[in-house]
Amino acid sequence: MAAVAKIAKGFMNLFETGGNTFLGWMKGIVPVVLMLMVLMNTIISLLGEERVTKIAKASSKNPFTRYLILPFLAAFMLGNPMSFTLGRFLPEYYKPSYFASLAQFCHTSNGIFPHINPGELFVYLGIAQGIEKLGLNTMDLAIRYMLVGILMNFIGGWVTDFTTAYVCKQQNIMLSKQPKVTAE
């Protein structure tokens, strides 16, 4: 009976720990994420959706803007998963590469911009907790994580361009490199 009671106590302790963690987030990270979301929606409202659309179209012209600037702007302003919608302005040929770059960016920028992907913030926070226990600065970690991420996201997007070319050739498919944006 003592073993069953010990297991039950451990089981309840798991939920108590989860509840305490949740309350900590409600006092710390949740208000920050909420305020960042309000700021981003305000910026989009002030700029106008049409201008944001023009920025996305202009970004499709070369690999640096496609896999560095557009993913950053999309993730920063729209967050995950809405940021993927800006890919609609890209030609079909570049959509897989944009997705590859953006999907990674939504993770690697979480330390500095938690509003981008709050659903996966626990990964960064778990690593940051270890850094804090070592007495190190978590902002240094967040900046390094983002800088390495930006470089690797760009490389990932560009490599996916080559992969797309290979698959198109292998499957004898021609994907357009011209943007075809239609009003939705």
Automatic annotation (TrEMBL):
Family annotation (PROSITE patterns): PTS_EIIC_TYPE_5 (PS51107)
Keyword entries, A-Z: Membrane, Transmembrane, Transmembrane helix
Pfam families: EII-GUT
Membrane-spanning segments: 22-47, 68-90, 142-168
GO terms of biological process kind: phosphoenolpyruvate-dependent sugar phosphotransferase system
Keyword Transcription regulation: no
Keyword Transmembrane: yes
GO cellular component: membrane
Name under which the protein is recorded: PTS glucitol/sorbitol transporter subunit IIC
Organism: Acidilutibacter cellobiosedens
Classification lineage: Bacteria, Bacillati, Bacillota, Tissierellia, Tissierellales
